[in-house]
Design a protein that fits this description.
single chain; 141 residues; mainly alpha; Arc Repressor Mutant, subunit A; three-stranded antiparallel beta sheet; 8 helices; 3 strands; disordered N terminus
Amino acid sequence: MEGETSRKHPMDAVVPSEVQRFVLDRIDSIAQLEAILMMRNAPDTWWPSSTLAERLYIADQTCRSELDVLCQNGLVVAREEDIGWSYRYAPSNGELREFVDRLVYYYSHHLVPISNLIHGKPRTRIHEFADAFALKKKDGK
């Protein structure tokens, strides 16, 4: 109708679309986001996966899988040590670092919309396959 303004999604009012796109493209879970937050707060620290897993309340293997995705997405780096794998916050370029900084701001001010965005992401076939494998392994089959 004439004079009617285009309707925006409610999240657009609080979280810019480019930050939403960054989340959709680079962050698959709250565990990944929380890991980034922890590592970002101590950027020179190499975090053993077991320490991050403990702080995130998830299994070490699950934690490593989550962190490996962050490595593939250019947000953290990994190295193998005597105690296992360790990770450090190290965005591969300034643009990624800036997006993480913006995401941290919006997550601290608009936790629910960011959480809903992450939880609302479509599950990929890879996740479904991994879940099926984990269920079979857990059942001992």
